[in-house]
Amino acid sequence: MSDPRHPRASGRATLSDVARHARVSAITVSRALNTPDKVSSELRERIEIAVRELGYVPDRSARALASRQSFTVAVLVPSLSNAVFVDTLRGISERLDPFGYQLLIGDTGYSAEVEERRLRAYLEHRPDGVLLTGQAQTEGARALLAHAGVPVVRMMDLSADGLCVGFSQIKAGYALTRHLLERGHRRIAYVAAQLDERVRLRGEGYRCAVREVGGDDPRLEVAVPDPSSVHLGGELLGRLLQQAPDCDAVFCCNDDLAWGAIFECQRRGIDVPGRLAIAGFNDLEMSACINPALTTIATPRHQIGVAAADLLLAAIAGEPPADGQRDLGFSLVVRQST
Amino acid sequence: MSDPRHPRASGRATLSDVARHARVSAITVSRALNTPDKVSSELRERIEIAVRELGYVPDRSARALASRQSFTVAVLVPSLSNAVFVDTLRGISERLDPFGYQLLIGDTGYSAEVEERRLRAYLEHRPDGVLLTGQAQTEGARALLAHAGVPVVRMMDLSADGLCVGFSQIKAGYALTRHLLERGHRRIAYVAAQLDERVRLRGEGYRCAVREVGGDDPRLEVAVPDPSSVHLGGELLGRLLQQAPDCDAVFCCNDDLAWGAIFECQRRGIDVPGRLAIAGFNDLEMSACINPALTTIATPRHQIGVAAADLLLAAIAGEPPADGQRDLGFSLVVRQST
DNA sequence: CTGTTAGCGCCTTCAG
DNA sequence: CTGAAGGCGCTAACAG
């Protein structure tokens, strides 16, 4: 009833369908596809034709199962709405795509629980490597990774152990605050939302710097756990101005908040930077376009993705990590808002 | 040499490792995990303990191979840098996560070739469904989908055949232009970048509307294929003002460009909307925050994700699509920029 | 260069 | 409710 030259009605063409069609053995088809130079050009051609005629698409599950390599890398970022992580993803993808690795991209919504859940889900794919943003947050997540035994590279911050690529969030926060101090500001505020590890560390850097000049004052800090947004930036500026009307500079934990703060100043007729200097963090594309252009910390997020991918590739290949902790630095971009 | 109660050194714990550990058969472990109510509570408990002790994580490849269901859905969007698609992804994820589906998320960079390549790669995972943005661009992509025989839902625009969820880009472009006409503008420009299907359709709508009042003029259109960005918005405004100094309103094909145009007007001292009205498309978060607040078309992108997921779920379940073409509409949001 | 054999880890029968 | 046998599609290891 069934024609052996054609794929079974029950599903798609398989390797043996192709093999039968090309009158070779299955393994030869496998080789023609994966290591073409190990197959004579004659058979290769016949096989290529069969593949095309049957519309054969290999099955990764079967391949992964048999070869014990999934050619898959799991990547977890806090949010896809944040351009910072999307730039990082692009760097990863640029580096991993050419090697045939496929990315399992997931966002955690800045939640440790979601992170663990997604991690578990992705580990079921037996990824060849895992890329994480920051530390694995929960005990469970760390246990999962330990059991899995896959190479892991952590991105964005620096840490004491394991492989990681990033820069010192503390130093960056410190550097930006120093810049404001050098501009002569003494009542410098820190406005933050989405209080993740990195935002906290930037706050640390800020506090370090203001303390050095005795300029620390709890009223100068506005921090809320809400998701960051431009709108929130305006709102938090209002709150800040209420609790510390004499502040003369604002360090926003990210650019989005800073934009919102600038817009709010425009509406209130507050001169930036004359009456109030405003600085952000990350140097997203728009920060150079807004009026006044935003002073901010440029972060090497794309490069972090590239380097993390390279590090992971090396780890997958079993190469000893020459420098497991890669500090890619940051740079202060001074524009008109300060 | 090897203790049968422990996973082999060569790899991670398998179902039979767990089975041995709990002194039951492998299939019972499988059932305890997938259909717990088909296993006595006693065995279930023993199995749960074994799972925990061994740190067992199921292997999706093996499961997919044996069950012929991958519980995976492939999603292709043009870009992750565009908040529009990220909002759509969120809608999809919200709907599909609870069912245990895992998303294979990929971006095409607005390229038809990349789309086909990614599609092929994702089909190797034997996804239970595919979510596409717009039409499958290439002949090859369409052939792949036809061969694969998986349910496909297309998002964002409307189309004649197959399952799709979106709204009429033409009508939206028309509606926005009508609004500008009703405001009394007669020299309305269309500024566009990233010329994908949707941007072109919006342009169609624009042209329809201006033609009705005899206001069409090629000098009023500035369109470049470059990736859209805020910076580009400013640049294109400059170009427009040069080739049509008398234009009195600008319809930007997306909000990013409109922001850039507004910033450029601020720098040039052009009054918005007094001298020049500016409108965008999509209603991203920032559009309500900028000064002047941006008039734009609010698009139901999150809802599109939700509805697309629902449609796909139904199609996977083999349910006949009651309404295969779902028009979710759009709405005009009039703010201060017009 | 090509083929055979066996098995990856799990689930679908079909039995009890 | 539990288990035994077989196979999903592919590739490793060995043969020739």
What is this entry, summarized?
The structure is a homodimer of 338-residue chains. With 338 residues, chain A is an alpha/beta fold. Chain A has helices at residues 15-22, 26-34, 41-54, 60-67, 83-96, 112-123, 139-148, 169-182, 197-212, 230-243, 255-268, 301-316; strands spanning 72-77, 102-107, 129-133, 152-156, 163-166, 188-192, 221-223, 249-252, 277-279, 296-298, 325-327, 331-333.
Describe this structure in words.
2 copies of one chain form a homodimer. The first copy, chain A, is of the alpha/beta class. Chain A has 3 domains: 15-58, 434 Repressor (Amino-terminal Domain) (Orthogonal Bundle); 70-167 and 302-328, Rossmann fold, CATH 3.40.50.2300; 169-298, 3-Layer(aba) Sandwich (Rossmann fold), CATH 3.40.50. The first copy, chain A, has 12 helices and 12 strands. The first copy, chain A, has helices at residues 15-22, 26-34, 41-54, 60-67, 83-96, 112-123, 139-148, 169-182, 197-212, 230-243, 255-268, 301-316, and strands at 72-77, 102-107, 129-133, 152-156, 163-166, 188-192, 221-223, 249-252, 277-279, 296-298, 325-327, 331-333. In chain A, strands 2-1-3-4-5-11 form a 6-stranded parallel beta sheet, sandwiched between helices. The first copy, chain A, has a 4-stranded parallel beta sheet with strand order 7-6-8-9, sandwiched between helices. In chain A, strand 8, helix 11 (255-268) and strand 9 (277-279) form a beta-alpha-beta unit. In chain A, helix 6 (112-123) runs parallel beside helix 7, helix 8 runs parallel beside helix 9 (197-212) and helix 10 crosses helix 11. Chain A is elongated, with a radius of gyration of 26 Å. The termini of chain A are far apart. Chain A binds a DNA duplex (16 and 16 nucleotides) through helix 2 and helix 4. Chains A, B: InterPro entries: HTH_LacI, LacI/GalR-like_sensor, Lambda_DNA-bd_dom_sf, Peripla_BP_I. Chains A, B: Residues 13-67 form the HTH lacI-type domain.
